[in-house]
Amino acid sequence: MALAESFPRVGEELVVEPSAEDRPGSRNILDPGFDLTLRPMRYPLFYDMYRDAIKNTWTVDEIDFSDDLTDLDRRLLPAEKHLVGRLVAFFATGDSIVANNLVLNLYKHINAPEARMYLSRQLYEEALHVQFYLTLLDNYIPGMADREAAFAAVENIPSIRAKAEFCFKWIGSIEHLDEIRSEEDAKAFLLNLICFATCIEGLFFFAAFAYVYFLRSKGLLNGLADGTNWVFRDESAHMNFAFEVVNTVRAEQPELFDDQLEADVREMLNEAVEAEHQFAVDVLGEGVPGMTVNETREYLQYVADQRLAQLGYAAQFGSRNPFTFMELQDVQSLSNFFERTVSSYQVGVEGDVAFDEEF
Question: According to DSSP H, which parts of 21-112 are helical?
Fold first, then answer.
């Protein structure tokens, strides 16, 4: 092949079949080091995920909070205001924990340049979420002292501190791991990644989204719901990426997925459900009409079973989804965002939408 023929034309993708020594199997995604070679591409799905994420570009400036301020001032009950206050306090720190984990623990161990491209994009999105939550606090909480208290929620709100401590317990265990050199190291990395996918973004944030969509079902805080739609699309993609990394490791090193790993994952999810239940007791403790702590726990167990299924494990709780209002939301907000063209995106995305039942 002539040199000129080896490069794609403008607007085209060059597809090169990997040679035998470069196909997945000869090198693993958790091998130590930093592979810098994008061609031949070992994991093209991660590159596709990166490109799809670019199509979901949005900015905080697009969100209109003006109606929310009227709702907060005139329409919300005191118990609902308490719910919103706790919710934005959790949001203020939750994505910062995720971003730190990306930088300190995940990026340096996932040895595929196309996957690291996605992680770089995800880090930008986490920063965007932090900006969104900062804007929420600035709009919803006018008093500076109250704002500062919200940002210090991990210190002064026990139910949020419990969630943070859970995160630090499970994801902080590999902060001093420089390279994955053993099966024990690889399993520790997997527990970090699975905690991120199933418990933090896949349970804590999905529970938070349920509170937001509950309020929207009552015609309240549409600005918050509009911004959450964007965040939800991002978080769903982040979770799907993490599960795909887990699937890749499972294909390359199936011996890591033994009974002990499954037992650790189930222990982790149980702890996450308990921590989020404690948050629900706090959030709903003043009596929010239309939403109960028992229903919320059932929802958390339902979501936990969905996450177990995504990992290939049997359900643990057998709970149903008690929140019918979730099924009434705009399906574009509750689906795999890159499967269709959506007019509200800045850049259209092609495909079909289907409700994914992961709530």
Answer: 44-55, 66-70, 78-101
Residue 268 maps to which CATH number? Answer: 1.10.620.20
- 98 vs 199: CA distance, rounded Å: 11
pLDDT for res 139: 86
Separation between Cα atoms, residue 359 and residue 356, nearest integer Å: 8
Residue 312 lies in a domain: yes
Do residues 273 and 301 touch, judged by C-beta distance below 8 A? yes
pLDDT digits (tens, 9 = 90+) for 101-111: 888 889 999 99
Position 208 in a domain: yes
In this model, does residue 86 exceed pLDDT 80? yes
pLDDT class for 358, splitting at 50, 70, 90? low
Structure tokens at 355: 């409700």
Residue 143 lies in a domain: yes
- Residue 10 belongs to a domain: no
CA-based angle 227:228:231, to the nearest 5?
95
Indicate the average pLDDT of the chain: 84
Residues in the chain: 359
What's the pTM?
0.83
Domain count, the chain: 1
User: What are the tokens at 240?
Assistant: 């799907």
Instruction: Give the 3-state secondary structure of residue 282.
Output: helix
